C-alpha cells in the first residue's frame, strides 16, 4: 500500500494529478512529520477508503505513533469544527460568532505533537472541507508562529492533490459500476 499504488490506479486523463501526487510527497519543503501528518489528515478528510488505506499505511512509516494519532485527531476535530464554523459564517449574522460554541475541542490545545504541526494539519483539512473561517484562523496562528507562507501553501497543495486523487478514484469506481 502506497503512493505508488494510488498513482498506478489513476486513469490516463488524470496524469497531472498523478505527477502532482508524486511531487508533493517527494519534494516537499515541509518536515517529514509535517508532510506525512498533512497527508494522513487529508486522506481521512476525503472519506475515501482506498485513499485512507494507501496513504495512512505509507505515512505510518514516516510518523511516530503519537504523530499518526495527532494527524487523525486533526481530521476528527476539523470534521466537527469545519461544519460548525462554516455554518455560523454562512448564516451571515455575526452574532453567532460571539456565542460560545460549547463544543469540546481540547485536542487543539494539547495535540500530542508540536502545536504548529497540528495547526498545519487542521488548516489542510479545513481546505478540503471548505471552511473559510477555520482557514483564516489556522493561517493566522501559523503565521504568528513564524511559519512562512510557502510552507502554508505547501499544505494547501497537498490537500488539493490528495482530495483530487480521492475524487478521481471514487468517480472511476462509480463509472465502472454503470
TrEMBL record:
Query: Which cysteine pairs are joined by S-S bonds?
Result: 131-134
InterPro entries, per the entry: AhpD, AhpD-like, AhpD_core, CMD-like
Q: One of this protein's GO BP terms?
A: response to oxidative stress
What EC number(s) are associated with this protein in UniProt? 1.11.1.28
Q: Where is the active site?
A: 131, 134
Where the record annotates domain Carboxymuconolactone decarboxylase-like, the positions are 97-175
User: GO molecular-function annotation terms?
Assistant: disulfide oxidoreductase activity; hydroperoxide reductase activity; peroxiredoxin activity
Q: Which UniProt keywords apply?
A: Antioxidant, Disulfide bond, Oxidoreductase, Peroxidase, Redox-active center
Record field: catalytic activity = N(6)-[(R)-dihydrolipoyl]-L-lysyl-[lipoyl-carrier protein] + a hydroperoxide = N(6)-[(R)-lipoyl]-L-lysyl-[lipoyl-carrier protein] + an alcohol + H2O
The UniProt similarity line reads: Belongs to the AhpD family.
Q: What does this protein do?
A: Antioxidant protein with alkyl hydroperoxidase activity. Required for the reduction of the AhpC active site cysteine residues and for the regeneration of the AhpC enzyme activity.
How does this chain assemble? Homotrimer.
Q: What is this protein called?
A: Alkyl hydroperoxide reductase AhpD
Amino acid at each position: 500500500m502506497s503512493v505508488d499504488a494510488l498513482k498506478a490506479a489513476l486513469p490516463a486523463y488524470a496524469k497531472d494529478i498523478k505527477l502532482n501526487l508524486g511531487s508533493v510527497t517527494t519534494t516537499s519543503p515541509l518536515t517529514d512529520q509535517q508532510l506525512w501528518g498533512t497527508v494522513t489528515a487529508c486522506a481521512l478528510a476525503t472519506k475515501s477508503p482506498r485513499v485512507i488505506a494507501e496513504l495512512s499505511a505509507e505515512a505510518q512509516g514516516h510518523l511516530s505513533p503519537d504523530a499518526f494519532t495527532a494527524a487523525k485527531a486533526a481530521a476528527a476535530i476539523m470534521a466537527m469544527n469545519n461544519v460548525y464554523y462554516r455554518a455560523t459564517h454562512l448564516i451571515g449574522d455575526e452574532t453567532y460568532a460571539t456565542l460560545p460554541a460549547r463544543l469540546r475541542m481540547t485536542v487543539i490545545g494539547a495535540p500530542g505533537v508540536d502545536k504548529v504541526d497540528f495547526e498545519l494539519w487542521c488548516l489542510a483539512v479545513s481546505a478540503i472541507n471548505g471552511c473559510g473561517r477555520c482557514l483564516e484562523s489556522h493561517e493566522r496562528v501559523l503565521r504568528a508562529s513564524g511559519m512562512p507562507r510557502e510552507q502554508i501553501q505547501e499544505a494547501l497543495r497537498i490537500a488539493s492533490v490528495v482530495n483530487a486523487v480521492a475524487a478521481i478514484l471514487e468517480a472511476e469506481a462509480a463509472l465502472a459500476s454503470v
